[in-house]
Amino acid sequence: MHTDAATKLEFAVQMNCESCVKAVRAALQGVQGVHSVEVDLAHEQVLVESTLTSQEVQTLIESTGRHAVLKGMGTTGQDLGAAVAILDGAHSIKGVIRFLQISPEHCLIDGTVDGLEPGLHGLHVHELGDLTLGCLSCGEHFNPFKKQHGAPEDLERHVGDLGNILAGPDGRASFRLEDSQLKVWDIIGRSLVVSSGEDDLGKGGHPLSKETGNSGERLACGIIARSAGLFKNPKQICACDGVTLWEERARTVSGLKQKETKTPFANL
Ligand SMILES: [Zn+2]
């Protein structure tokens, strides 16, 4: 379900002068969904409280011509845990999805996936954090209570059922959800998978509707790992060479690049 809960986003942003600070402020202030903006020039840090997706806020900051790297996400209250999944898949699909437990009952999910066919795509937490055979070895939808597949708002659903994300004409799905069944501490070490097609939410009448939502092949996946909360990531970016998340990620996986999957995955 879409959420109006505000989050605080901590960005590292290349800034070396007061005019940079003014430009960043001007890009954010007054935008609907942005509640507050704090800019720390000395630490090259921008703290934004908003109800926008982290990608939307990053795009606003980068509209000033500066690189921004999201370093942490939190709330105004006590955060109970955070996790991140970096998705990789066939057809150059890439994504970053963050999970933030904002209360014992509510998990906020903020993410962006690029390279998708425009339209709806099923999004599910799967049982296993095993990418040995790509997305095929991730197991089934995370379902500790042995229920049938359903919609996020249904009581009868897999815990891992997050419904659909919508990719626009540019192939990007940028979303912000809140879920009452998913808990960050239950999903660390499992995986997140995006599907080729729309999840029918258990209501499609197909034999697979009650198992997978008949949402098609597994397009991209990633292991869900524990991540830093707000102000807990000490890593700095070089002031002379700010890198985007994608560039940083490419450096990290170079030499360890997963083999590309050429054949479509079975519809499981
Ligand atoms: Zn399911």
Question: Can you put this structure into words, describing what you see?
Answer:
With 268 residues, this protein is of the alpha+beta class. It has two domains: 7-77 and 229-253, Alpha-Beta Plaits (2-Layer Sandwich); 82-226, Superoxide dismutase, copper/zinc binding domain (Immunoglobulin-like). Helix content is 14%, strand content 34%. The chain is built from five helices and 13 strands. It has helices spanning 18-28, 54-62, 184-187, 209-212, 245-253, and strands spanning 7-13, 34-40, 45-50, 68-74, 82-89, 94-101, 107-114, 119-126, 132-135, 161-167, 173-179, 191-195, 218-226. The strands form two sheets. It has an eight-stranded antiparallel sheet. Strand 5 (82-89) and strand 6 form a beta hairpin. The longest helix is centred in the N-terminal third of the chain and has 11 residues, at 18-28. The two termini are 25 Å apart. Mean pLDDT is 87; it is low at 237-246 and 252-263. Residues 124, 141, 149, 158, 160-161 line the site of zinc ion. Zinc ion is lined by residues 124, 141, 149, 158, 160-161.
Overall mean pLDDT: 87
How many strands appear in the DSSP assignment?
A: 13
Order of helices and strands: EHEEHEEEEEEEEHEHEH
Q: What overall geometry do the principal axes of the alpha carbons give? A: elongated
Helical fraction equals: 10-25%
Rounded to the nearest angstrom, the radius of gyration is 19 Å
What is the CATH topology descriptor of the largest domain?
Immunoglobulin-like
Share of residues in strands = 25-35%
The fourth-level CATH homologous superfamily of the largest domain is Superoxide dismutase, copper/zinc binding domain
The main β sheet shows up as: 8 strands, antiparallel
Low-confidence stretches: 237-246, 252-263
Strand order of the largest sheet: 10-8-12-13-5-6-7-11
Query: How many helices in DSSP terms?
Result: 5
For the record, the CATH class of the largest domain is: Mainly Beta
